[in-house]
Amino acid sequence: MKKGQLGVWLLGIVSLIMLMGGLNLSVHAATSDQSLARVKAKGTLVMGTSPNYPPYEFQVNEHGQAKIVGMDVELGKQIAHDLGVKLVVKKLAFDSLLPALTTGKVDMILSGMSPTPARRKSVDFTNIYYTEGEALLVNRADQAKYANKKALAGQKVAAETGTLQYNLIKQQLPAAKLTGMSSAANLILALKTHKVAAVVKGTASATAYAKNDPSLVAINGHFKTSTAQAGNAIALKKGSTSLKQAINRSLAKVKRHGWIQKRYLKTAGKYLKVNTANTSMWHYRDYFIKGLQYTLLIAVVGIITGSILGLLLTLLRVSAGRPLRWLATAYVEFVRGTPLMVQIMFVYFGIGMFVDVSALTAGIIAIGLNSAAYLSEIIRGGIQAVDKGQTEAAASLGLSQWATLRYVVLPQTLKIIWPSLGNQFINLIKDTSMVSIIGVTELIYQLGIVQADTYRGVAPIGVAMVIYFVICWLLTRVLRYYERRINHGQTV
Asked: ABC transmembrane type-1 domain: from which residue to which, for each copy (predicted)?
């Protein structure tokens, strides 16, 4: 055999080996991906969404019950049907959707999300299912003044943080003053109160707001978007190849039949009319009642667990050995040195990676752990304020350390710290609003939903303020009643 022929044969053999190796890797990757199998095994497809973005996803008050509807929800139902499973919709703040996906809280994000290059680094995206432009939403009175995006130079222009629109303002309106907000409802409120000159939203959403609010008008923004990020896609966890392929097949069928325009958008439009038929706050009273119930539940459990854990931390800090005292001190300092919102997200997304906890449970745990640190400091300060002569007298009478603490020190401590305890309890009630970021339907979360559903910005805020005031006023009266009993030597 000639040397040239030998070389050709060797090259062919090497190429065949490399090809077989590549095929084996592809087969291994395909078989190791269990994303579709897991969804089918549990029988549910969990869709993460932020329901304050009509007509994509929003809530309606149907027969007194809150219901998440919209174009994306209809699409999610079709995908679940094609997969042979049931759709479960989980509501979260938009900023919390990506952490929820990467930690396994949801199987997919279907929330009008654009597949930007930055997002593609952390999650996978399906094919584009809907393409639209970007619109400027302005007050009708300012329509002539802000006829195009160039006229917004030097003006405040707003968008939801973490969205494509936010980045487009940054890139294509450098002369404007960018303002980011966490919810669509807050954006519209800022616009209507002239805090910002314009809001950038997707055309479908901007048109929906303009149609249902005569004081607003939608203008073509003429923003330029790259092919890679134009339109909306479904976000999936990295490596979910089999689930992505199955969803893409479903999206291809939806596109082939034109169901988004023929069915889903029309269904969303009907629900929008339901919302705007009666926008009185009394009509949405069940929303506020439900929010109040969750707020009180979180506050009461947080006060109880925080008080017990706070007392335990205090006892460790004043009477335990050095290692336990150091640990208790470190805990208090760490909790007081980090924001409550971050703690809530850590409990839900961080611990939730190992233990599946609901949003409500995570919120209660975070509130309880946070309040314990502050209550521990209040109790410790009260114990230190008790005259040392009291403990010396108790010791001379033969009382043990525990008996002295129980019968001498703590009763006097309670009298000293009662006003501070009351103030902390009131603050805790207001701090429950933080759990709305992980989708707990407490008062502030329900406030945002009512704003999005009714296109009214100020009225829902007024209702929530009154409810919070009544709760805190009643708690203040109760605390003062028991304060008078303590000061007169009566038991609580």
From this structure: 292-476
